[in-house]
Write a structure and sequence with these properties.
about 250 residues; alpha/beta; 8 strands; about 40% helix
């Protein structure tokens, strides 16, 4: 895919040094230093126009967010979305853009994502409406192909998770098989995320808003990667099972 943007786009994003990162490899292992804190870091790989990552950074100020895409034009569009989400206007832009302290937009090719993040540097990876690459010969380009997932495992920490949303049934089925083949634990699997309506706290992407409005099913799942995250998940399952057993026993006694 090639995008045509207006003239001067590279100069535009180069001026936004507080928000846009053009030399991602220089920050490998140093992202916490860039953000100036040790808060968890979540990255959206293939952020598109940036609505999701911008809204998330506004909603969760104690988490650092990085939106990643390889196209200058999408970085520019995402920077505009970020300013809208954080209520920055032309009049206050010069000073106010510094207030987006927990968001960075990274111009980078996801194929080499392990070159931008050190081992265990991220806590969560979002894959929202990634290109499904429907042709079988292009399977390796899918962001849930084992080749990519192995890289996510490398850069995610002990609490690491992958959150996936897509409108593509074929990509979702491929992803389920990919994660299962790698022996990864999946949870909160949904074949129609918004069947009961859109939850008011749910942050939508541009595509999600469009597709949900057309009545299309949104598929979603979470993959538990880190050992600490897996232990927490298993404990939650045990507690849920114990609660269900207690309720069943009480019902039988009555």
């Amino acid at each position: 895919m090639r995008l045509r943007g207006r003239k001067g786009i590279r100069e535009d994003i180069e001026r936004q040094k507080e928000l846009v990162v053009l030399n991602a490899k220089d920050y490998k292992g140093k992202w916490s230093e860039l953000f100036g804190n040790n808060n968890p870091i979540h990255a959206e790989l293939g952020m598109g126009k940036g609505r999701f990552i911008s809204e998330m950074s506004k909603k969760y100020p104690n988490i650092n967010f990085i939106g990643v895409d390889m196209y200058d034009e999408l970085i520019r569009k995402a920077s505009e979305k970020a300013k809208v989400a954080h209520e920055i206007t032309v009049e206050n832009e010069e000073d106010a853009v510094l207030s987006i302290s927990n968001l960075r937009l990274m111009l980078f090719n996801i194929e080499h994502i392990e070159e931008a993040f050190a081992e265990g540097e991220l806590e969560r990876v979002y894959l929202n409406f990634s290109d499904p690459w429907p042709k079988k010969k292009h399977a390796r380009r899918r962001l849930t192909h084992p080749g990519f997932v192995a890289k996510y495992q490398q850069i995610l920490n002990a609490k690491g998770e992958i959150h996936l949303k897509t409108d593509s049934q074929s990509l979702f089925e491929f992803s389920l098989n990919s994660f299962a083949d790698m022996g990864l634990r999946m949870r909160n699997i949904s074949l129609n995320l918004h069947v009961d309506g859109i939850h008011p706290d749910h942050v939508m992407t541009e595509y999600e808003t469009k597709f949900a409005g057309q009545g299309m099913n949104i598929h979603r799942l979470e993959v538990v990667i880190g050992q600490e995250a897996l232990s927490t998940h298993q404990e939650q399952l045990k507690q849920a099972a114990a609660t269900a057993l207690a309720a069943e026993s009480k019902e039988s006694a009555e």
